TrEMBL record, chain A:
The modification Phosphohistidine is found at residue 47. It is an enzyme of class 2 (transferase). Residues 184-195, 213-228 have a biased composition (Low complexity). CDD domains: CheA_reg, HATPase_CheA-like, HPT. This is histidine kinase. It comes from Virgisporangium aliadipatigenens.
From TrEMBL, chain B:
GO terms for biological process: chemotaxis; signal transduction. PROSITE patterns: CHEW. InterPro entries: CheW, CheW-like_dom_sf, CheW-lke_dom. It holds the Pfam family CheW. It comes from the Bacteria. This is Chemotaxis protein CheW. Gene3D superfamilies: CheA-289, Domain 4, SH3 Domains. Residues 3-143 form the CheW-like domain.
Length: 803, 147
């Protein structure tokens, strides 16, 4: 049974269930012979089994069900009415089907290719009913097959009893090949059984008058009790093991369960919060336990709806194989994380986009073997599918080691097709240009193939993924390969969300749409500007269109004070980036999505509702709809951006992006591209090597330089942690410890002077304060004198900072 | 002689009734989440044991000024084809058994928004109970836009 495919397993479980239902229906039908409804139900069941068995090449099963179906069709359509004779014939047919199913379960086949004469009595009985010629021969056959309907039901499910004639008859026939080979000759039971077997596989069966097989069939079960009994028992167990290892559960029930768990999660959140305030140790312990159990319960319930992504990956090898051979390419398909699970409904939604990406990768990504050889690559390309969990999402990556995307070519095509204007293009960075492939009406295929490149595709992929609350992006290196990354929520019901406040209310934004959060100090230098009336914010030299949530929701008078401190949530949807201005950012948490009724559909700003930790209802914002609002003034913003760029270029060429750190009273600027990461280490993690300080960081020993020491500044009191700026170049890292990270600015650094201390390149006025510009290379060398020897040195200057 | 049970309630001193069979429950609640941009008749959303319920302000439906949500408000939660909806009312009355004989179609003199929302009137001792057409009373779409 190991080799039995999933499909056969499912077919068996389903058919056994259906047959049980069928027994009940047929008995009910005797009470109510004219019921069209019952007949239709029976017809459908048999029709399904017939269809599937034909598909799975169970020819004997198909034959039996086929005649049964013919009879049922006539009954259903009223061409013929139920008689005891037809009931008997149908029950006989069903028992025969059951027997064949058992045979399939035991042997993996229904004995097709062998002889069908054991099916003849059943088929003839049914055919006789159809023809209306109640052949005297058929009558006893049917009677034998099933004495009374009720009894048959019982006997079939109770193995070992000798009167399940129909089933035994069929299974005896079904077991025929094996019995013939092993048991028939040497064993004692051969004598009585031989008659049956003889009849069963004897070629003369057709020639013999109908009585013969019937006569044979009749004594057979009685005689076969001994050998059949135990075998039947194992058959029964095998069947039970298949049927019992899985049960079918109504999806509605699962949804209800999921909803209840959602409630429990919320209640748990509330309770845990209350316990935190109560300061009672035993309550705290109970709370922790509840916390744990709830999380586990939530996980388990979610699992009931989960399926491994392998379900949709399973057919990709074939797709890749067929495609690659069609193109004369050689492609190896690697899969990682195939056991990663996703909600069933999401899995369905991801199937087509994923298939499209795979097709696209084989078609456009991976080069022909000769080209690859010419480029010094393995002629066999590799396509890697990778699935893993990350931050409450499932990430699915499709990576090829093919030609990669050419930003120049993409830009060219995008211009050609009118997807973007030259002005827009001029403002785009590499990543944005790559993202152009997701725009509607874009396709870079040199020629249209039957696989992809018909001008549809990537935009559809994006739309489909975004519809389920996911995201898709692409990273590519020309000549090396491309990675398409799908970010998919774990379930539709529970999402990771950012809670914000605007006016007196809280609103929820799906986390997947959130890129970054920016705090705007109402009093400080960074203010919201207006490009021809459209609000914008300069985010690292780019104008970010803004949407004021309070104004969008008509919560506040637009002319209200502009000097409030606000947060800008930089959001991404439908290929647009915009900033949503809100009053406060509260937290991120998992929320249960509740659909909103149709009465709010026209409003269009809400994607749903949810319950917050305190039990209050909060509205989930529809980011895509907000994005469309942000787009209204986009042409003005583009013009303003062009102007901004022109002025920037006119003054100093580029904009500096600087990290401002505080050291004592001094403000020190570090170019942002000399910052790989910002970390904060507890003081006790700083260890000493010789007279240097080091810290263990990502399996490395990282030299730490305190900038205060280098600059000879008076360092104030040490805190519990030390903020450090980590710079990594070709695997070698140094850490520059500062006292405080103050800010990140992007600005044209004007009023620069060479007034500066040792270790500084000069000073400038940034944010109205004099800020020293750190000589980073020197600081690095002070931290790690061999840094340059290990790393090929690149000239570093502040002019590069704008890159 | 057929009779039906009605759950009664008051809005602006007028007695209304809906068939008991469609009433899911009656409760007082005080935390409503406003829905900006929604039709004015939507008083807000609230959490009924995990179910998000929209509360329809009957005062607005009747052409009266909207309710202020300082204190708790009474909800009569009724089942409609699509969802459970709450009707915000002033005061809950009792459940009364009324025979169809006491029913009369809406008086001809009745007009304004009220006329659209009722099926008819029942004559009670000393006062009239208007039978509310729940489908219309809970319909917040069209007409009563956001401003």
């Amino acid at each position: 049974m190991d080799e039995m495919g999933d499909i056969v397993q499912e077919f068996l479980v389903e058919s056994h269930e259906n047959l049980d239902q069928l027994d009940r229906d047929l008995v009910a039908l005797e009470q109510d012979p004219g019921s069209r409804e019952l007949l239709s139900s029976i017809f459908r069941t048999i029709h399904t089994i017939k269809g599937t068995s034909g598909f799975l090449a169970f020819n004997r099963l198909e034959r039996v069900t086929h005649v049964g179906e013919n009879l049922l069709a006539r009954l259903r359509d009223g061409a013929q009415s139920m008689t005891p004779q037809t009931t008997d014939a149908l029950l006989g047919m069903i028992d025969c089907v059951r027997g064949l199913l058992t045979h399939i379960e035991e042997n993996g086949n229904d004995g097709s290719g062998g002889d069908d004469s054991d099916l003849e009595p059943v088929i003839q009985a049914v055919t006789a009913c159809i023809n209306g010629t109640a052949a005297p021969a058929a009558k006893p056959a049917a009677a034998v097959a099933a004495t009374t309907p009720v009894e048959v039901t019982v006997t079939v499910t109770t193995p070992g009893e000798g009167d399940g004639e129909g089933a035994e008859d069929a299974s005896a026939g079904g077991r025929k090949p094996r019995t013939r080979k092993s048991a028939a000759k040497p064993t004692a039971k051969a004598t009585p059984a031989k008659a049956v077997l003889g009849a069963a596989f004897g070629g003369e069966a057709d020639d013999v008058p109908p009585e013969t097989p019937l006569a044979a069939a009749a004594p057979a079960p009685a005689e076969q009790v001994e050998p059949v009994g135990p075998e039947d028992e194992t058959g029964g167990q095998a069947r039970r093991s298949i049927a019992d290892s899985s049960i079918r559960v109504d999806v509605d029930l699962l949804d209800t369960l999921m909803r209840l768990v959602g409630e429990l999660v919320l209640t748990r959140n509330q309770l845990v919060r209350a316990i935190g305030g109560a300061n009672d140790p035993s309550m705290t312990r109970t709370g922790q336990r509840l916390n744990l159990i709830t999380s586990e319960l939530q996980e388990s319930v979610m699992k009931t709806r989960m399926q491994a992504i392998d379900h949709i990956w399973a057919k990709l090898p074939r797709v890749v194989r067929d495609l690659s051979s069609g193109f004369g390419k050689r492609v190896r398909l690697a899969m990682e994380g195939r056991e990663t699970e996703l909600d069933r409904s999401l899995l369905e939604a991801v199937k087509d986009p994923l298939t499209h990406l795979v097709r696209n990768a084989v078609d456009h990504g991976i080069e022909l073997p000769d080209d690859r050889r010419f480029k010094g690559k393995d002629p066999e390309g590799t396509l890697t599918l990778r699935a893993y969990h990350e931050g409450g999402h499932v990430i699915v990556e499709v990576t090829d080691d093919g030609a990669g995307l050419d930003p120049d070519r993409i830009a060219e095509v995008a211009l050609e097709r009118g997807v973007v204007t030259r002005e827009q293009l001029a403002l785009m960075d590499r990543r944005e240009i790559l993202s152009l492939v997701f725009r509607p009406g874009f396709s870079t295929a040199k020629k249209v193939t039957n696989v992809s490149g018909r001008g549809v595709g990537m935009d559809v992929v994006k739309t489909n993924i975004e519809r389920i609350g996911g995201a898709v992006d692409v990273e590519s290196t020309l000549g090396v390969g491309t990675t398409w990354r799908l970010t998919i929520p774990l379930t539709l019901a529970i999402i990771q969300a950012l809670t914000i406040e605007c006016g007196a209310e809280r609103y929820v934004i799906p986390q997947v749409a959130v890129h970054e959060l920016v705090y705007l100090d109402g009093q400080g230098g960074r203010v919201i500007e207006y490009a021809m009336g459209a609000p914008v914010y300069r985010l690292r030299g780019k104008l970010l269109p803004l949407v004021h949530l309070d104004q969008t929701l008509e919560l506040r008078d637009p002319s209200s004070d502009h000097n409030r401190d606000v947060y800008v949530a930089v959001l991404h949807a439908e290929g647009r980036r915009f900033g949503l201005v809100v009053d406060r950012v509260l937290n991120t948490e998992e929320v249960v999505v509740k659909p909103l009724t149709s009465r709010f559909k026209d409003v269009g700003v809400y994607a749903g509702a949810t319950l917050l930790g305190d039990g209050k209802v909060a509205l989930i914002l529809d980011v895509a709809s907000l994005a469309r609002r942000s787009h209204l003034g986009s042409d003005k913003i583009e013009r303003a951006q062009a102007q901004l760029d022109a002025t920037t270029k006119a003054t100093s060429g580029t904009i500096d992006r600087l990290l401002i750190a505080g050291i004592g009273e001094r403000r020190v600027a570090i170019p942002l591209d000399m910052v790989t990461r910002l970390e904060e280490f507890p003081v006790e993690r700083l260890e000493r090597v010789g007279n240097r300080e080091v810290v263990q960081y990502r399996d490395q020993i990282l030299p730490v330089l305190r900038l205060a020491h280098l600059l000879g500044a008076y360092s104030s009191e040490d805190g519990a942690t030390v903020p450090v700026v980590v710079y990594t170049e070709r695997g070698r890292s140094v850490a520059l410890a500062v006292e405080k990270i103050l800010d990140i600015v992007e600005d044209v650094v004007d009023a620069r002077s060479d007034v500066g201390d040792d270790g500084m390149m000069g000073s400038a006025v940034i944010q109205q304060r004099v800020t020293e510009l750190l000589d980073v290379r020197r600081a690095i060398l002070a931290a790690d004198p061999r840094f340059d020897a290990a790393v090929e040195s690149d000239p570093i200057s502040y002019d590069m900072a704008g890159m | 002689m057929a009779s039906r049970q009605y759950a009664t309630f008051e809005v602006d001193t007028q007695l209304f009734g809906v068939p008991v069979a469609i009433v899911q429950e009656v409760l007082s609640f005080h935390e409503y989440t406003p829905v900006p941009l929604a039709p004015k008749a939507v008083g807000g959303l609230f959490n009924l044991r995990g179910q998000v319920i929209a509360a329809v302000d009957l005062r607005v439906q009747l052409g009266l000024p909207a309710r202020d949500f300082d204190g708790p408000a009474m909800n009569v939660i009724v089942r409609t084809d699509e969802e459970s909806v709450s009707l915000l009312v002033d005061k809950i009355g009792e459940v009364v058994e009324l025979s169809d004989e006491a029913f009369e179609p809406p008086p001809d003199t009745l007009h304004g928004p009220l006329r659209e929302l009722i099926n008819g009137a029942f004559k009670l001792d000393g006062r009239l109970m208007l039978a509310l057409d729940t489908a219309r009373a809970t319909d917040t779409g069209g007409g009563s836009g956001s401003d």
